[in-house]
Design brief:
4-stranded antiparallel sheet; ABC transporter transmembrane region fold; Rossmann fold; alpha/beta
Length: 662
């Protein structure tokens, strides 16, 4: 499935000004996640009304104490008022605990749903997405942004509702007590609104910038603090450079944090001064009214208490657009990730095949890692720099990655990039049970072909079929169940050997695990370890050697028992003992299965039923070893330069090597 007009990454690069508006669509999407918790939301609203209502009672108690109990020497009333002054905060506190429990359940529930939805969506993204995406950015979305969204639900929104209820109730009582003083207190309202609007926009921009800088810092940490990155840093002695680079990112995060804190404090300072002016005005006017006998002392004391309760929520509500807008940034960033289209998915009505026979056909398949509007080989395509954020920091790296043909695109005379075809009009068939070998120079498109079969990528044009069915018309579960793949870059989880093997078949028995390990020539090694199959392999399996990791990967595929095998032999960098063990294991696992192998060894090529010779994305030759040697061309050149004097059984004579096939 192609995405025109710049691809799915263009979806993430629209102008920042278009993303700063808190619109109804965004609020509706937020409500979709909050809707399952509506009974608890109602419970929260009830507690808000109860707490706000009971919080209005203490000033009235003070008024009664000053105007009635003390002047009239009413001991009973005095005792009642004292008990009420203790009971009300206690009851409010208990209701507050209930409210906090409900808000926490809603907030944590929303964060769970968001994380699950985002992780689920990322799991369905294509390999293209991950080859062009920095892992640290994804981690920032799953952690920082989702937590920010949770704070919006369980903190900001509840605070806004509480303040609205409290303000309305307080104003009602204040109007009853003395409407003239209430109007005087409200006269300074414009002084709250004007600075809030200006500062709100500024703080929102700072909030988004802060998230982007944190994501950038997380991405750098992720790249240099994993075992592969750390190894590269140490091999090239770049520790100081990386420390300085990280320090720069951390300094940016620090500076924008300081900027946000200072702006916020100036804002609250201004609001505090405005509040002081309003309070002084009310006390001044109220004092004159008391002296004139228009008000009682108890009334002015109660009124002053309500005045504080009015300005507190008023200040918060004045800043509410600021806080609400900042909190919505987190939802925006999460929804941006959720809205990335899924590139690889089954067509509607896709069918399932329980056990495929294993016939694979490529029909005029063309493929490019550079998506664009023009799908012709001569078409022009501009690679835009795209990212999740307002600035030009790239979440998704430009260019194509992940293939042995991932060289730079050619450029035309005007500087625009020409689409480079990784595969150009590829057609061939693999019969059930056949061993097909892929050979060719680096960058020929061999790995791209292997990625087409399990649908890690889809053809730009043409189609790939399994048993006559277009792969896009089969369920992804069908492909996963029937296809097994072993890549050069063997990946093991930071788990035990047994757990890594069970990843292929979670319900496998101990006997099945042992048999798979024996077939992969790894059982004896595992058994010699102190913890056996319970040995933890470490980050990416780096506690094991390359050959050991490769044999565990082979055992994992054997345990899966797929009908088709896609193998990228990774034995050229291994010692002779490991290589021999892996070659023997591969011969065992390929028996009776349709196998497509990127061949690095002559023994595999000689055993192949069909050899496909690739060059610059094209299938230039196909046939058996003997046929290709007779016809000459690229295969014979590769054989003479790469395989002719390959050591085999202690001999370097080509006649003896060829004779070994029989």
């Amino acid at each position: 499935m192609g995405f025109h007009g710049g691809g799915w990454w263009a979806f993430l690069s629209h102008d920042e000004k278009q993303r700063t508006q808190v619109d109804r669509q965004l609020l509706r999407r937020v409500w979709v996640f909050a809707r399952p918790y509506w009974p608890k939301v109602i419970g929260i609203l009830v507690t808000i009304f109860l707490i706000s209502g009971m919080s209005l009672i203490p000033p009235l108690l003070f008024k009664s104490l000053i105007d009635n109990a003390i002047p009239n020497r009413d001991i009973a009333l005095l005792n009642t008022l004292a008990i009420a002054m203790i009971a009300i905060p206690l009851i409010n506190g208990v209701i507050g605990v209930v409210q906090r429990r409900l808000s926490a359940e809603v907030g944590e529930g929303v964060i769970y749903d968001l994380r699950r939805a985002l992780y689920d969506h990322m799991q369905h993204m294509s390999l293209r997405f991950f080859t062009q995406t920095r892992t640290g950015e994804l981690m920032s979305r799953l952690n920082n942004d989702v937590v920010g969204a949770q704070r919006a639900v369980s903190g900001t929104l509840i605070t806004i509702v509480s303040n609205i209820v409290s303000l309305v109730a307080t104003l009602a009582i204040m109007f009853v007590l003395e409407w003239r003083l209430t109007l005087l207190g409200l006269a300074i309202l414009p002084l709250f609104v004007l600075p809030a609007r200006r500062v709100g926009r500024k703080l929102r921009d700072i909030r988004r910038k802060s998230m982007e800088l944190n994501a950038e810092m997380n991405a750098d940490m992720n790249e240099t603090l994993n075992v592969s990155g750390a190894l590269l840093v140490k091999l090239f002695g770049r520790e100081k450079t990386e420390i300085e680079k990280f320090a720069d990112h951390a300094a940016d995060v620090r500076d924008i944090g300081v900027q946000s804190a200072v702006i916020s404090q100036w804002f609250f300072l201004a609001l505090g001064v405005v509040t002081a002016i309003g309070t002084a005005a009310v006390y001044w006017a109220g004092g004159h009214m008391v002296l004139q006998g228009a008000l009682t002392i108890g009334t002015i004391v109660a009124f002053s208490a309500y005045l504080t309760r009015m300005y507190g929520p008023l200040m918060s509500l004045t800043n509410a657009p600021v806080e609400f807008a900042q909190s919505m940034v987190s939802f925006e960033r999460v929804f941006e990730a959720l809205d990335i289209p899924v590139e690889i998915e089954a067509n509607p009505g896709a069918r399932a095949i329980d056990r495929a026979s294993g016939r694979i056909e490529f029909e005029s398949v063309c493929f490019t890692y550079t998506e664009g509007e023009d799908s012709t080989p001569a078409g022009l395509n501009e690679i835009t720099r795209f990212g999740w954020g307002a600035d030009q920091r790239a979440l998704l790296r430009r260019g194509k990655q992940g293939d042995d043909s991932s060289g730079s695109d050619e450029k035309s005379s005007n500087g625009r990039q020409l689409k480079r075809w990784a595969l150009d009009d590829i057609s061939f068939s693999m019969l059930p049970g056949q061993l097909v070998a892929l050979v060719g120079p680096s960058g020929a498109g061999k790995t791209t072909i292997t990625y087409m079969i399990p649908r890690l990528y889809d053809p730009t044009s043409g189609r790939v079929t399994l048993d006559g069915h277009d792969l896009r018309d089969l369920t992804l579960e069908t492909l996963s169940d029937n296809i097994g793949m072993v890549t050069q870059d063997t990946y093991l989880f930071f788990e035990t050997i047994a757990s890594n093997l069970l990843y292929a078949k979670p319900n496998a028995t101990e006997e099945e695990i042992t048999q798979a390990a024996k077939a992969a020539n790894i059982h004896d090694f595992v058994s010699s370890l102190p913890d056996g199959y319970d040995t933890v392999v470490g980050e990416r399996g780096y506690r094991l050697s390359g050959g050991e990791r490769q044999r565990i990967a082979i055992a994992r595929v054997i345990l899966k028992d797929p009908r088709l095998l896609v193998l990228d032999e990774a034995t050229s960098h291994l010692d002779s003992v490991s290589e021999a063990l892996i070659q023997e294991a591969l011969q065992r696992v390929m028996r009776g299965r349709t196998s497509l192998v990127i061949a690095h060894r002559l023994s595999t090529i000689l055993a192949a039923d069909l050899i496909l010779v690739m060059d610059e994305g094209r299938l230039v030759q196909s046939g058996t070893h003997d046929d290709l040697m007779v016809s000459g061309g690229l295969y014979k050149t590769l054989y003479d330069t790469q395989f002719r004097f390959e050591p085999n059984s202690g001999s370097n004579q080509p006649e003896e090597i060829v004779g070994a096939k029989s």
